[in-house]
Amino acid sequence: MDIKQNKLEFAKTPVHLSQFLDFISHFQAMDPLRRKVNVHVEYESESWANAFNLNKNIAKLCRLFATSFDSLENEMPIVEAVHHFCRTVRRVLKAIIHWDPRVSTIDGVKESSRLVKGISHQDYHTLVSHSAGLFRVIDYNVALSPVSFHHPLHWLLSQLLENTKLLQDDVLHQVGWTLGLGQMIQTTFDSLGSNQFLNIVEYPIRTLTLLSQISCGVWVRNGRNMVLQMHSYQDISFRPNTLDNDIHLLQIGFTLCDRNQILLTLIDRFQLLDWFNGNFQYAHNVYDSSQKKHMIEELLNLLIIIATEHDKLSGASSEQKVRRFIIQYLALSNLSYSELLKMIPSKLNDGSFETYLSDMATFKPPTGLDDKGLYELKPEYMDKLNPYFWHYSRNQREEAQEALRKHYNRLNPTQPLKEMDEYLFVPQLDQSNLGPFKQVAAFLHSRVFCEIITYSLLNYANIFKDGNSDTILDLTLHLALLATIDSERMNLEWKQETMETLTASYRVPTPTFIDNAVNDSIPESQNTNLLSVIFDYLSDNNGRFSHTHKRMYFLLDKFASNGSSDTKALIEKWTHDRNRLNRSAASGSKGGSEISDLERKKAAAKARQAAIMSQMANAQAQFMENHSEMYDEFEEEEERGNAGDLMDLCESNDDDNLQDDDAAEVVRMCHFPTENCIVCQEQLNDSQLFGVLAFVQNSNIQRTTPSNNKEVWADILHASEGTNPWQDGNVEERTFKGFPTEAHTSGMVISSCNHMMHADCFSRYQDAIEAQLLHETLRGNSHTFFNGRYLCPLCKSLGNTLVPLIWRGKKESYPGVLLPRSSFSELRDNALHLRTELSLKIEEIHNPDYNGASFVNTDSNIFLNHVDLLKLMYNQLNLTVAKSQIAIPDDSHIDGNDLALIDCLKSLYSIYTLTISKFEIDQRGGSASTKTKDPTVEYTGTLMDDIPTSAQRFLKILGLTNGFLPKLLSSSWDPDEMLAKECLALNALKKVFPSDFSIFNQAQPLLWADPFEMLVLLGFSANEYPQVEPHHVLRSMYIAELTKTVICIFQSVLNGEDTWNDASISTLLNGLISSQPNQDKEKAVVDFVTYVLRLLNIQSQPIFTLFQTIHPSALLSLIRTFTLPFIRKSLVFMVTFHGLILQTPEDDEHSQMSEYNYLLKILGLPSPEDIFKYQATENDLIPGWCHHLVTFSTTTSAISNTVVLQYLKLFLPIRQKLVTLPYRLDELFDESLKRVCLRCNTVPEYSAICLICGQFVCARRFCCTENERGECNIHMRTCGGDIGMYLIIKDCFILLLHRDGGGTVMGAPYLDSHGEPDLFLKRGTPQYLNTKRYEQLQQMWTSQTVATYVQRCMDSASATASWEYF
User: Fold this and answer.
1) Interval 487-499: pLDDT, tens
2) Which CA distances in Å does 1019 have to 111, 674, 819, 1005, 1013?
């Protein structure tokens, strides 16, 4: 039927029409429904779904048949086309009139009671209108008689009558119907009566009534299927060919039938005759009060739709309809392309939708991981928004009205509408293009319509005194506004006709709504008309109708300007009397005017607020009284710290300046908050042990610098060019690029949501989660992590341990540790003395006669009332750490009794080190939009500004825990545990300050280790020994970092000739050479590097090769780039563990300095150039480190008989990123066809890219399965640690895995041109990389929140999946 040649044949041949009418007649009024009254339906059949699916296709056939006449005038003369068209319309009308269904039988039993009867078998009764008279209409009760949704004959008629081009009066006049459409249709019923078209419209009216009754619960006894049928009939895929046709046919009925008669028919079908006759207190036999209110609203809204929706009547083009849909839905809220497309009927989407959308809306690209691109309507189209759009729901109507209010406030910023102010929406009623249907809104001027408005206002005022149904009032006033505006149009047309012709002056004008509002009185009182009701609303002194006054006064203005002289006189008299009463009331008031209800509410709200604030002040005072001892100790120090300005730390490196006695020291107490327990909601205090929920996990976030990777070194050189090494080196580069897996370093990090709970509550919560997990496992529905991992009950963050909080706060100071008491030159001697002291102490403990003393708490900052429980919690913490270190937790078991204290301390110190490193890595560059700023962090101009206060507080708690745990857990009978911390300190001192190299044969040199890790180790283990001051240790490790960096760069140049001789690398190196050479700095670099390499027995030729390859100026830039992360991490350590208070920088101080120099100034460290001019102290440290390294390296070259140093590793100093993906997804497809899986040596059928290293692996294939684990899970353990991040190319989604068998999927960073992902590539549209989305995915990786995201998704999922098979 959609072929052009067939369309012409269908239009010309009556035989095809007869056959088609016979076919669809079989489905007319099928599946009839009858309301259950006293009993609920026993069995809900699903047959309705078959009927809807069938009639959905029948409706499409009707649409295709009706479109056969769309271009008929182009194929033949217009007269012939109109003849064929009118013949078809008349035959369809006769088919409906003569439709007489037979009695259906079910299992041999006649069911005539369920049959929907034809027009010839309808019963009639007479209805009375007080002002319009008597009318004979069909007597039918939808709530008691059978009714059906399906009327394909009516749908066909409606779709035929949409062809307005063939229904114009001038065209019909040529065929012989001089009176137009009405004559053509009426002649079809000459022998049947004059109101037959109203009888045809009867069936759509019943359907609309049925929908309204279902929505308010009248048909609730028929089961849930009734609601499903209603939603299906109103669905966007169904309604364009069904429900919209019902409304369209009803509009034609209002054009051709008597307006009063069809209005009374509507009221009768909705069973609201009593309401619109003034009997508002009657008890309805079907509706309760809420249902009756709902039906009134539905009827009024239907009248608005009939008067205002002209898309079908005007023959609007597809473009006009699509543009209107875009305005109506985008005005409510910003929508994605797919969401908006679902709201547009498919028949209107002819390929130009995107063009219209781009013209009318502004595209907003997505910003988050789960966001979509959104379209926002341009402001110039907001004026076309109609809040009573026929496809709107009740909620959408309210949203549209609110959108209009906001638009008004944007246009009038000086006089915006307040929250309680009324917004006047003046509707527009355009009937210029309606042609034969231009009288569709004439019912607005009928007398029955005036009764509807009058009784609605009267009944509302009498029944809904509390204003609980403003919807009825709003709908009624909107109808009144429509009628008034149309009355103004009719008066203007009549005046124009009077001026153009002489005869028109003798024509009596048609009564308008304004005339009826003044002249028609309700029978209860001859003086009560619509105008008097409006006067009553405006005269109400209780303020119940104040929100309608703008609309009421608008109606009065239009009544006065367009009504008769008597009407104008009545309004002027009322206005004069009203003003006189207002003046009298104002002059007669005593002590000022009476305050309004709104002002009284404001005063009461202020009183309540004052009472609440007073209550809070009393509670605060009581708390301070009960806990005053918490603040006594540091009160004096805080007062001293808050007074006066803070002195800056001296920029000079002279030790004497650091010991200035006149330097002011600031001391304060950082109090830890004690909120309520998130489980029991009781106050946290020292009566019960409590702690902070934390999560320990294995992490490979830290990377080392590959020695011969040209791409990595190119990025490092790019980063060294500017003052900000974290900026992207080449943003435009989008070639696929990964990172070697062997360069990842494994370790453990700890994080916390900072929510607190009692230790007992934690234990009970842990038991409850395990019991729930066991229950789900037995049911086969387990998707919760094993090994004690569970979600925080408040914020759903992942956790597996509880860190006890027993401190009231942490002491902080400035300059604090940055102001040492001794000179740096004394460090070595002090360290050697401490080594001797610790050695003697350890030897003394191993003496059999030694009696150890038990732990006694002397710190007033610690509330220690539950020692045994605290020991248990610390042992559980150590056990959790030990379990997290195991690569395959399912196959291993750890006994807490097997853990040595010294090993536990090493793990805790290492966790603290890597956690700080994780924060430092996370703060390297990235878009500001992907990071959330903490407004409570004090501005310091450093990376501490980007670390949330909660994270800093947790690091402080963890640092105190690391210092207190060995004191509490050290055994008085085990010598190895009594001084475990001292043993660690002694081993560290032997590495940092070597004296006898013979004892280092089996020990790892300092230059092999991480200097920052050594800084943390000495900070924890030697913190109680004043001989080794933290600032001196910091300076020593800073020198060690510089030394190690020089050696690593030399090794990379020496072993990577192909890399460093590359033209692109040489170009980048030349870009690092300073344009203003400083010979002193360059000489210092050359001397220092030569000195260090000579200590390692390096010959002159390799040293010469180094400087020939890298200019000293470029080498200095590289050294600064590599050592900057150490300085940043050291700053975090000084703040969180040593309690350093950072100062707010001066306005121009931070902006004029690079981050490197600024941090050196804060920490009181010399610049690299000053270090290179080595002094005696450095000369004592560096030779020892180098000699130790040479001694440890025993490999000897057979050619030169020289010691070959084993390669040292430097941490990657640049921003750590996931793999670089190409801009287009199809480029990634091409790349996947070239890559071979390293396990099965074949091109994977389902390729997955590891986003961490870039390796291609097999996904969802059994070729690489090992122990029932897919290759993605296997590769995760060697690459990502506890997490895996993969891009499944063919399915276009991100696969996130966790080592405990958990996983989830999320949208890929590839989006189409509308900013939407195409999961499984169902749409097949081109996909492009969204950099913001990919940055947020990268932020999730660097912040180590992937495991939490996975568990949250699994916890909210309704089904489980076997993630191990990926």
Assistant:
1) 998 888 877 777 6
2) 92, 28, 16, 19, 10
Q: What would the pLDDT profile of 865-915 be if each residue is shown by its tens digit?
A: 888 899 999 999 999 998 888 755 544 556 656 688 888 999 999 999 999
Q: Which parts of the chain register pLDDT below 50? A: 106-110, 467, 503-506, 589-595, 626-663, 729-732, 784, 890-891, 999-1001, 1196-1201
Say if residues 976 and 905 touch (Cβ distance below 8 Å). Answer: no
CA distance 426 to 444: 16
Max CA-CA distance within the chain?
Answer: 134
Pairing of strands 1283-1288, 1247-1250: antiparallel
- What whole-number distance in Å separates Cα of residue 487 and Cα of residue 550? 19
What letter represents residue 1140's amino acid? L
Side chain identity at residue 1034, one-letter code? L
Say if residue 815 is preceded by a cis peptide, omega within 30 of 0.
Answer: yes
Q: Could you tell me if 695 and 1347 are in contact, meaning their C-beta atoms sit under 8 angstroms apart?
A: yes
3-state SS, residue 1031: helix
Cα separation, 609 vs 292, in Å, equals 41
Q: Is 1307:370 a contact under the CB 8 Å cutoff?
A: yes
1319 token code pair: 């999961």
DSSP assignment of 470-525 equals HHHHHHHHHHHHHHHHHHHHHHHHHHHHHHH-SGGGGSPPPP-HHHHHHH-B-TT-
Continuous segment of H or E residues that includes residue 765: helix 759-779
**Contact call for residues 1188 and 990 (beta carbons, < 8 A):** no
The closest of 1228, 1224, 1287, 1299 to 1252, measured between CA atoms, is: 1287
Could you give the CA distance from residue 253 to residue 202 in angstroms, rounded to a whole number?
A: 10
Amino acid identity of residue 758, one-letter, is: H
* Whole-angstrom distance, CA of residue 527 vs CA of residue 535: 12
What distances in angstroms separate CA 748 from CA 527, 556, 913, 1117, one per listed residue? 88, 77, 9, 31
Q: In this structure, what DSSP letter does residue 687 have?
A: T
Residue type, 538: L
Tell me the C-alpha distance between 1276 and 1255, whole Å.
Answer: 11
Specify the pTM: 0.81
Q: What secondary structure letter does DSSP report for 1146?
A: P
Distance between CA 708 and CA 719 in Å, rounded?
Answer: 18
